[in-house]
Amino acid sequence: MNIEINKEKCRVCGSCEAICPSRVFKKEDGKMRVHHIHACIECGHCLAVCHDEAIIHSSFPPSKLHKIDKEKLPSAESVLELCRSRRSNRAFSARSVPREMLDKILSAAHTAPTASNAQGVEYTVITSREHLEFIRRHTIKGYEKMYRMLAMPVVKQLVKIFAPKTYYMRKKIKRVIKEDKKGRDIVLRGATAVLLIHTPRDSRFGRDDANLAYQNASLMAESLGVSQFYGGFICSVVRRDKKRTLEKHFGIEGSVQAVMALGMPSVKFHSYIDRKELKVKFF
Length: 283
Ligand SMILES: Cc1cc2nc3c(=O)[nH]c(=O)nc-3n(C[C@H](O)[C@H](O)[C@H](O)COP(=O)(O)O)c2cc1C
What we know:
Elements: E1 3-5, H1 15-19, E2 25-28, E3 31-34, H2 45-49, E4 55-57, H3 76-85, H4 99-110, E5 122-126, H5 129-151, H6 153-162, H7 164-181, E6 193-199, H8 206-224, E7 227-230, H9 232-240, H10 245-249, E8 255-263
Antiparallel strand pairs: 1-4, 2-3, 5-6, 6-8, 7-8
Helix pairs in contact: 4-8, 5-7, 5-9, 6-7
Residues 87-88, 90, 229-233 line the site of flavin mononucleotide.
């Protein structure tokens, strides 16, 4: 990696020094200098903040630098309205999600922040009926296994005492299995696409990174009129599966950390309702 400052262009405003999280830049003798180049996390903040286009960074050729179109930015009210109107819509039509929409959802996810700017989040999109069916079956099998384990007398007693939340999960697990047996799929609920969000297995903040990407994706889905809900049942089975069945099935090297079920809506929301009271303290 190489970082240089074009001394002719640089007006020594100090913005790069102020913005850089790794203290790569330092003002010295009236000039900006590149100091700790090895500390650079390649976030690109220095280039994005420089008015003078004076920073030359080997990781960011000019083709990777784009002016922000401020006209396109939504107002604070628009952002809040989008957040309020984003809901989990599980009423899907049979129509598949157009590829351009999936691409936009992925682009939004891909801009989310990641710990240490690792950018290790990857995506697998499933739209084939056969593979969607595999996900549903795998989840139900996982739930059946969990239910059998929780029904063992010793486990039942221990879990009741030491993990009461898991103990009460039994009821939920039982309901999912029962509904599935009746032919009502409450794992995918008729979603026509599933987005698996995965990160390297050794990633310390993998789940956090994946869920931030999820939220960007869900806001984009909402603005495109695409329905989505969080595949929590799928996630809870995936997390317990030591054999990594789902990952292996789709050739995923890392760990699936977040799952989005998507489809086109058969009905739409016309109102939003208030959440429970906002609980916050300021100090
Ligand atoms: C971690 C997490 C797991 C979830 N798991 C599921 C799930 O497995 N199935 C489902 O239908 N909805 C699931 N949801 C959606 C929630 O039920 C939903 O977000 C909540 O009821 C609030 O509704 P809203 O998303 O419309 O605001 C999950 C949400 C989160 C954040």
